[in-house]
Design a protein that fits this description.
The chain is mostly helical. Helix content is about 65%, strand content about 0%. It has 22 helices and two strands. The protein has a two-stranded antiparallel ribbon. The protein is globular, with a radius of gyration of 21 Å. The relative contact order is 0.11.
Length: about 400
Amino acid sequence: MPRSRFVTHLAVGAVAVLSLRCGSNPPAAERVPFTPTSDAVVLEQVPATAGDARARERAALRRALAAQPEQLDLALRLARLDIEESRMRGDPRYLGRAQAALAPWWDAASPPPGVRLLRATILQSRHEFPAALTDLDAAVQEDPRNAQAWLTRAVVLGVRGEHAEAARSCAPLSALAGPLTAAVCEAQVKSLAGRSRQASALLTDALARGAPGPEAEAWALSTLAEAAARSGDTARAEKLFVRTLALDPGDAYTRAAYADLLLDAGRPREAATLVRGHTEDDNQLLRLVLAETALGSAEAAPLAAELAERYAASHLRGDGLHAREEARFALHVEKAPDRALTLARASWDVQREPWDVRLLLETALAAGKPEAAAPAVEYLQATGCEDPGLVALAERVRRSLP
């Protein structure tokens, strides 16, 4: 979802690659910005977890980098770990820490290649897509064999709705990273363009030839699950989401997408069970709020109040990563269709993922302003979208026009 989608990680061969799904949102935060009065102030108590080893490594790297801030290898390692932590927690504050690690090179017109790619990853995670693409274009020109740069570029272009150019970025991946990576890249682009049945066929065939490891398999299965859901094959999508989470229980993106499938299928109780316990991530909390609201649960109101506080805090921080998710909140929880339409338009101005299309259509209908969905209808026509859910929504908009 850059927001839209949103954050998980992909795999190129045996190498983990940070993905550009853009749905990540800020975690819980204070109502107003808080500035500690001294270094002795405790901001947060973090329980001991299996992530302690990662935390210790990051802390050690940070200390080493403080003593030698221009040690490139240390900076790159720390930035990668912070970006990965952001993915796992759904917490964009770690992106700021990753940027801080890269500070000596951050503003350079021609930074070292590793810095350029990580900078692009951070920029796209913040939905600063033009700046990210500038770095990615330079990265593939500097090193046409950089598989991660090609893959990242394909995803950013796909999120922006530039599907033909995104597909061209997938083309080098077969030789550079293997046939499964190339197939997933191409399938993602096809599915984003509304040709999810084609995407499913392509990826099913590629998976039948095997995956190089569990990370690659989980990434491919998650992509296939989304394509199945978009094509209307709910039963298959559910099985694939379950398989993906069995391989990677920490995949927050897939968990949220599976919860959406359950919500759309009228199974809010199962959706609530799926995301409960993961609500430090705003995306998961949103799904829980939607599920409890649909159930008419007593939990719905306090959970909705908590999520509203998080959104308010993110506005104070000046980030706009959550417009799409907040549009869903406004539409289905606050029952404020005009506000939901405003938020859906804001998301549409940045990205063109299927959820952005859907929300512009849904909120325009709910607000009684079907003409506001004209850009989405035109977009679906231009891309030749075949996905039944979006096609049906667009037809509802057409019938609602005066």
